[in-house]
Amino acid sequence: MHPAFPGVLTAIPMDITHHFIQQGEGEPLILLHGNGEDTSYFVHQMDTFADAGYRVIALDTRGHGNTPRGTAPFTIRQFADDLLGFMDLHGIAKAHLLGFSDGGNIALVFALNHPERVDKLILNGANLDASGVKRKYQLPIEIGYRTARLFARRSEDAQRKAELLGLMVNDPNVAPTELQRIEVPTLVIAGTDDMIKEAHTRLIAKRIPNARLVFIEGDHFIANKQPEAFNKAVLDFL
Question: What is the value of pTM for the model shown?
């Protein structure tokens, strides 16, 4: 049991230390970036959410930004375990989670595995599996993944590329039926021209009990490109 939180299990031992930035005071709001990105993705969210009364924490996930790769598996489920360790280390018993793209997948898996640690859940451009991505985007990812794997043993760059692309080919593989276990208030949000299929986004929102669904004019990167509309939708929900 975690000594600071009675009834809460302690995370597995960590082989990495996360780089993170934080701003503001109040209820913790953790921001999780997408594949190949880092905390800078949320440049348009930090001030706004902090000014709204939240302790905003953006962290670089394993092998991204300034957080080391470590030796543990490079998977969405490992990243969710990493998040649990991060929260334990920093004494965060419960937090709002906002995840974008692969960060949304991490938040989703985390909410399924550790519902007692989540206050409210915001899934931006998340997907359950590779079939949720429009084929014109997913096909180049799959080709790049297969090519990188061929050279991974001879090149560190190819190995890193294979791991990153592998997240979008092999993960997160969450069954739609699992979503009914999510009981925390949830916002599902995506762009009108997102790389995630609209039907897939609607499926996620439909299967999560009482989830709120919002579409914002724009592509996959609405938080970065349409921050005013995105931030308003998030704060209205919170």
Answer: 0.94
